[in-house]
Design brief:
With 300 residues, the protein is of the alpha/beta class. It has two domains: 7-171, Rossmann fold (3-Layer(aba) Sandwich); 189-296, GMP Synthetase, Chain A, domain 3, CATH 3.30.300. Helices cover 37% and strands 22% of the residues. The strands form two sheets. Strands 2-3-1-4-5-6 form a six-stranded mixed β-sheet, sandwiched between helices. A three-stranded mixed β-sheet has the order 7-8-9. The relative contact order is 0.14. The structure holds guanosine-5'-diphosphate and magnesium ion (MG).
Length: 300
């Protein structure tokens, strides 16, 4: 890097659902910015993670997985992807190396090609495949398109993430920092609270529930923050009464467990010794197709 010249730029993480984009963002940031689960469609909106080093500011944009939109919810999710692809300086196209190449990935590849900007291909989850399967994949990908680099890595274990950081640094444009040095995400605390609760719901539910639940914050009272106390009241929104019963669980066990896990993590995240988290469950049929509800639920 040239003396005294600062670098600053936007870097989008894009790829199929479950590739490990949010896991990588958290790894790069060294803290949780974006929630993660083993279910597709965990990330529903664009999330910023701003990493500031001595001479560079990397503004990461985490995006929902690239998929065929069905509901309005999915349409908004894909809009977030298109917007990110359009606006950033560098694309990180992340691929799950344990999955076979198929139509969905082909669609993601076309998106990258059309964007016609610097892009790196990340072959993720190398911890979960045997080394013999890696080389043929690298070869196949280098024939498919002209990525500046193809980088095998493990977002989960951290393998090769330092190499990725170097390559990103090489591609970043020069410029003054856009955000203050202590700024790390564009999410409000109440948005983060909703996301953490949703992560715990995702971790404990299966089938259609991950797609059909959302979390709204009904109140976020930090008037006693000085005393180390925050009070949050949140609703888990589902589409059917049967789903509400699942979330509540036998004798309220499920919702209690979700509450305990979310509270622990939020205490750390908000750096608050005492946190009171009240959880309710609401049935709202068809919320995924109601524009005003999506906006209210923070799916921008
Ligand atoms: N084995 C392995 N699993 C990973 C890795 N990165 C992410 N995962 C898992 O893949 C799943 C999806 O991760 P997530 O970050 O939510 O993917 P996203 O949908 O692309 O944001 C989660 O269960 C992660 O723990 C990796 O490097 N290795
Ligand atoms: Mg994600």
């Amino acid at each position: 890097m040239m003396d005294g010249m600062k670098k600053c730029g936007f870097v989008a993480l894009i790829g199929r659902p479950n590739a490990g984009k949010s896991t990588l963002l958290n790894r790069l940031m060294g803290q949780k910015v974006s929630i993660v689960s083993d279910k597709p469609q965990t990330t529903r909106k664009r999330i910023l993670g701003v990493l500031t080093t001595k001479d560079a500011q990397l503004i990461f944009v985490d995006t929902p997985g690239i998929h065929k939109p069905g509901h309005q919810l999915n349409r908004r999710m894909m809009d977030a992807v298109y917007e990110a692809v359009r606006d950033v300086d560098l694309l990180l196209h992340m691929v799950d190396a344990t999955e076979r190449y198929g139509k969905g990935e082909e669609f993601a590849l076309q998106l990258v090609k059309q964007a016609n900007k610097p892009s790196l291909l990340l072959l993720n989850k190398v911890d979960a495949i045997n080394k013999g399967r890696l080389l043929p994949q690298i070869e196949a990908w280098s024939e498919r398109s002209s990525y500046s680099e193809i980088i095998p890595l493990s977002a989960l274990k951290g393998d090769n993430v330092d190499v990725l950081m170097e390559k990103i640094g090489d591609k970043l444009p020069q410029g003054e920092f856009l955000y203050p040095e202590d700024y790390w995400t564009d999410q409000q605390e109440r948005e983060m609270a909703a996301e953490i609760v949703r992560e715990k719901v995702l971790a404990r539910t299966r089938k259609e529930l991950p797609y059909t639940s959302a979390v709204s914050i009904d109140s976020f009272d930090s008037s006693r923050r000085q005393e180390g106390f925050i009070r949050i009241s949140a609703s888990i929104v589902v589409e059917k009464p049967g789903q509400k019963r699942i979330i509540i669980g036998k004798g309220g066990q499920m919702i209690k467990a979700i509450g305990i896990e979310a509270r622990k993590e939020l205490q750390k995240l908000l750096d608050i010794p005492r946190l009171y988290l009240e959880l309710n469950v609401k049935v709202v049929p068809g919320w995924r197709d109601q524009q005003h509800l999506l906006t209210q639920l923070g799916v921008r």
